[in-house]
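Figure caption, in words: inputs first, then the predicted bound structure.
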Amino acid sequence: MNDLAVFGGERTVPAGMVQTWPPLSQEDRDAVMAVFDSNILHGTSAPNAVALQKEFAQWLGVKHCLVTNSGTSALHMAVASLGIGPGDEVIVPAFTYWSTAAAVLHHNAIPVFVDIEPGSWCIDPKAIEAKISDRTKAILPVHIHGMAADMGPVMEVARKHNLYVIGDACQAHGAKCDGRKVGTIEDTCGFSTNRSKNLSSGEGGLFVTNNDQAYEVASKLREFGEVVVKGKDREYNAYGLGWMYRSHEFVNAFCRSQLRHLDENNNRRKEFAAYLTAELANIPGLKGPYTPPNREPVYFSYIVEFRPEELGLDVPLAKYKAAVQKALAAEGIGLGQWQRVPVPAQDVFQDMQGYGKGCPWTCGFYGRKITYRGDDYPETIRFIAQHAYLAAVHPPNTMDLMKRYVAGFKKVLGQPKAILKLIEQMG
Ligand SMILES: Cc1ncc(COP(=O)(O)O)c(C=O)c1O
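Bound structure (pyridoxal-5'-phosphate present):
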């Protein structure tokens, strides 16, 4: 057995082998350069904005799409366009990027958190009903890490209680539940196209809906509350409060170019994930992700579960995880951490300051006392403690890198005594 790199042995993944996301091509460069040549840099009627909206709507299979300058702005539009506002409650999973809940707060509505279902890391449909009150207007499932939430039971609860369903698909372009792509099932949905996302434009977002009225409202919100009718003079009349959520034509052009490769890139992610999960099934100490039978994930992240008991190690999970992460990092294998606590445990919910003076919680329109306790979400806490994220399971990396990863896993997990020694050293 080779010495672990953390103890001076040779590393498994050579320095410089891991490549960053997204893969960039001459096609991308040409698309952006063509914007310079066109001299049209922005505007909701700009050619790349209009074409991107049409192409993404077609790719997804929805009636309407609006390009925005972030996933958060798309989500805010997804909330506000359904008429959700001051004092309304929206049900959100406790495990997500907190932007999901911020999109609710941005419109003076109140996030109410629900734990995740074991196994899929998405909202637990069975836990939703207990959180519904007479103020609840919507459920906001997040399709996290490329995994679709279990939409059948979510839609059932929503129908039963006459609630809207808003999707956060920022991490899940192309993920499916029961054969349907996320973003086509919900009333409205937001996607992010920031640098790391399956569809990347550096920064940006996409709002989608099949609802004509939500589309009209979202169009106004995106641009100052004004209505801009293509081919007509601008009216310069605001019909209500809106934001400046337009995107730049460089970004739109780049996003269109990346969209042409989205399916191919998602397929590579799936191939890598299938290989890693099959290999990890035979490597005691670490496991790949479980996929519920009705879901088709697109592996925005490849998550790994830590299982010290499989190696016969009677050590605290946190210490085992830290030692294995350190040993693998020395081998050139990145296993990072994402969220540290459930979203409701974050300071913004503990301090309840929101956008100042305690609003929106203490503004007169809510008039109800809500408390956020991080400990109320045991599945979220368990998930965060047990898992980490394997870096670079995406193109332009190739199967060569995945094979090196597996070699590194076998090398480190094959030496439980060395892991114990590292745990002792780390104190
Ligand atoms: C689950 C989730 N929701 C919302 C967002 C917000 O997207 P953006 O950063 O484009 O505003 C992100 C990404 O950062 C995310 O991962």
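The domain at 5-22+262-338+382-426 is CATH 3.90.1150.10 (Aspartate Aminotransferase, domain 1).
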